[in-house]
Amino acid sequence: MSIWNLDQRDLWGADAAASYDTPGEGMFAPDVLGPTLDRLHALSEGGRVLELAIGTGRVGVPLRERGADVSGIELSEAMVDVLRTKATEEELPVVVGDMATARVPGDFSLVYLVFNTISNLYTQEAQVACFRNAAAHLAPGGRFLVELWVPRPQPVTGGRHAQVFTAEDGYLGVDVLDMAHQRVVSHHIHFDDDGAARVWFSPHRFIWPGELDLMARLAGMELESRHADFAGAPFTSDSPSHVSVYRLPERPAD
């Protein structure tokens, strides 16, 4: 079976859910999570908040603890099971389903999709549907925030190439990119003390910033801001990622 035919629920099953959380480290580190929560809390402006692909609650749970009214959508029941060890359904309701189509009752002032997760949708059609689903959840004037990495240009020759995105003690992260089809397979290699290696991979469809802006327009939203990170650093040609905020008009256009 092709990697591109794998169901996301299989990739994000019980094993992935059990090892996803790394408290105080990696994407759970205070210097990563703190600015994320600060920005989301400010953008929510006291209204209801919806996280697409909420996972184990890395962001949604501490955002709720700051006083936000958070709901979520998540495809993997295994990830939701881990979230439920941190917050009940009454405290943080989650609809199990596809972030491109699942609906949560009511309107929201902020919908957000962090840590490159929109690229878990393998086609442009599905990604456009995700933007439209986000817009359908927003109250007039509401915002949709997307955090996404920026692919590096390919070498002069060859249609596929690899990029190391993380190299540290006990862990190596490598992306193998297919530029012609806007596909990337991320390889996560963990080294045990005895020298053994464990490899986990995840396929993605990457999106250029300009393409993301067009998806927003198709969903009736406009780009409000773009920064290199949650702390508000300027976005430049050298930025490896971006945090983009799109806004739904206060009232429908004539």
What are the main properties of this structure?
single chain, 254 residues, alpha/beta, Rossmann fold, seven-stranded mixed beta sheet, four-stranded antiparallel beta sheet, 7 helices, 11 strands, Methyltransf_25, transferase
How would you portray this structure in words?
By secondary structure, the chain is an alpha/beta fold. It has 2 domains: 3-151 and 207-247, Rossmann fold, CATH 3.40.50; 160-203. 25% of the residues lie in helices and 31% in strands. It has 7 helices and 11 strands. The chain has helices at residues 8-11, 14-20, 30-44, 60-65, 77-83, 124-137, 209-218; strands spanning 48-52, 69-74, 94-96, 108-113, 138-149, 160-168, 171-178, 183-191, 197-205, 222-227, 241-247. The strands form 2 sheets. Strands 3-2-1-4-5-11-10 form a 7-stranded mixed beta sheet. Strands 6-7-8-9 form a 4-stranded antiparallel beta sheet, with no helix packed on it. A hairpin with a 2-residue loop joins strand 6 (160-168) and strand 7 (171-178). Helix 2 (14-20) packs parallel to helix 5 (77-83). The model has no long low-confidence stretch (mean pLDDT 91).
Map the helices and strands.
Elements: H1 8-11, H2 14-20, H3 30-44, E1 48-52, H4 60-65, E2 69-74, H5 77-83, E3 94-96, E4 108-113, H6 124-137, E5 138-149, E6 160-168, E7 171-178, E8 183-191, E9 197-205, H7 209-218, E10 222-227, E11 241-247
Parallel strand pairs: 1-2, 1-4, 2-3, 4-5
Antiparallel strand pairs: 5-11, 6-7, 7-8, 8-9, 10-11
